[in-house]
Design brief:
Number of helices: 7
Strand order of the largest sheet: 2-1-3-4-5
Radius of gyration: 20 Å
Number of strands: 15
Structural class: alpha/beta
Distance between the termini: 17 Å
Shape: elongated
Helix content: 25-40%
Strand content: 25-35%
């Protein structure tokens, strides 16, 4: 996995570099104190991960992440920062992790290792069999974007179609044991690989938007915090 590092404080950059270079299967492509130089590297060189501070002169780490997100670059971002003010917005940019300074070595190592493992196991395997009157639908689990319970029926959304079943969310949750599916709300199960952003809906809940479809789901604030700590 190819990594780029940027932090405007040399001492923090040196710490980051010293930690990351000890992780197996990691190659550091660049390490710089300038976000502008990091941007030039990103345009010229292929990297898989950018580990960045947020508040930096001229171009900020958040703006770098926004460029990556806007241009759909296949680069995962990990923020290592001294400010907590961007945490919610980081989810809108699909940031993998948000690490607060000062941090122990193990915190950053765990985050990168989790990303390595996530990359290896990103492909969800298996099928889901759904009986519907006289038909049996066979769905690839990896194609399921989210599931919604409404009244006595449940709708399973994929990019290609929406299938209605009388199976409960508890029953479907038992079939979807992969860590990529989470019960985001009492009425929803979501596949985190399709999540595009979270938009604040009420004090304790967010609306979830997905890549590929216009339909939306709900997620509780508690689950957003859970995702931030263990997934992103």
């Amino acid at each position: 996995m190819k990594v780029g590092l940027v932090d405007d404080r040399q001492i923090d950059l040196d710490k980051m570099h010293a930690i990351v270079q000890t992780i197996p299967n990691i190659e550091i492509i660049f390490a710089t104190t300038s976000a502008d130089k990091a941007y030039e590297h990103i345009k010229k060189e292929d990297i898989d991960v950018l580990i960045a501070d947020i508040e930096m002169p001229n171009l900020s780490g958040y703006e770098l992440a926004d460029i990556i997100h806007t241009h759909a670059l296949n680069i995962t971002v990990i923020f290592v920062t001294g400010t907590s003010g961007y945490a919610v917005h980081a989810f809108e940019l699909n940031v993998h992790d948000y690490i607060m300074k000062p941090y122990p070595k193990e915190r950053l190592v765990k985050s990168v290792e989790r990303l390595l493992e996530k990359t290896k196991s990103a492909e969800i395997t298996g099928r889901l069999y759904i009986k519907q009157k006289n038909d049996i639908h066979i769905l690839q689990k990896k194609d399921i974007i989210f599931i919604e319970r409404s009244g006595r029926s449940t709708t399973i959304y994929t990019k290609a179609e929406a299938i209605t079943t009388y199976l409960t969310l508890n029953e479907l949750e038992g079939e979807l044991r992969e860590r990529d599916f989470i019960r985001s709300h009492r009425s929803f199960i979501i596949n985190i690989h399709y999540v595009k952003n979270f938009s604040l809906y009420a004090k304790n809940s967010y609306v979830v938007s997905f890549d590929g479809i216009e339909q939306k789901a709900m997620i509780t604030k508690e689950k957003v915090n859970f995702l931030q700590e263990y997934y992103f």
